[in-house]
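Annual report, structural modelling task.

Input specification for the manganese (II) ion complex:
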Amino acid sequence: MFNCDLHCHSTCSDGLLGAADVAQRAAGNGVDLLALTDHDSLDGLAAARLAAAAAGMGLVNGVEISIEWQSLQIHILGYAFDSSDQGLNAGLESIRSGRVERARRMSAELEKVGIDGAFDGAMRYAANPCLISRAHFGRYLVEIGAARDLRSVFESYLVPGRPGYVEHRWATLADSLGWIDAAGGIAAVAHPGRYKLSRAEMRRFLGEFKDLGGRAVEVVSGSHTQEHVDIFARYAREYGFLASRGSDFHGPGESYFDLGQLAPLPDGLKPVWEAF
Ligand code: AMP
Ligand code: MN
Ligand code: MN
Ligand code: MN
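The model returned the following structure:
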């Protein structure tokens, strides 16, 4: 099997390893083609490209863009774009700029339930402060014993209706697809199984995504169950989407799936990498 892992993170966003280390680890795991997809940032791509070349592994430019749709936070992956594109870079900068202020509001919310120092605590985990994310807050909450592990953090904190969650303005679906398209890239819906959408809402979302130029969905994902894989394979066939495969690796000991160590795409789907 041609081993593609098209979703992972480095310290440029909320991963635990530097971009070059991510690429080296992927090559060591037998990955043939990697996309580094940091949240809202292209900072790691150059270092990942050098390390991938040194290891004889393919690398395609990637990014994971935070958007809101119907007040729900959704992630859109961009692949194989021109990383020097000004519109894409400016768009990503516009999303990043609100993160520090959001982190202060999250910290204030956590204080209300007796958790002090979360802003500074989370920042200690953020190698790239402007990409401060809920993952960094999660690590701090585990550190102080507020939760057993990252998964339980996101059951009790930082999600709608729980302490530490704040509303935030991200990009729109149309913004994200416009930026990716103008930079010559291909857009994919990240881990669609994770969104709390009814069947009707999912259909509406996928319809809008397709109408706005979206071409792919992540079918095999580190955050999907086998049931999700089957459901989104069916959607991909029905809507004519290309299919993607990605671990969403954030770091050793934190992610359930290591780089490249996922099931292959189900039969009968068109792999997105054939369009790169
Ligand atoms: P943010 O972009 O600040 O909203 O943070 C989102 C990040 O939090 C995701 O990219 C994941 O790294 C992490 N995250 C969200 N939900 C979960 C979860 N259920 N389990 C583990 N990590 C999660
Ligand atoms: Mn993340
Ligand atoms: Mn994501
Ligand atoms: Mn991700």
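The first helix runs from residue 19 to 28.
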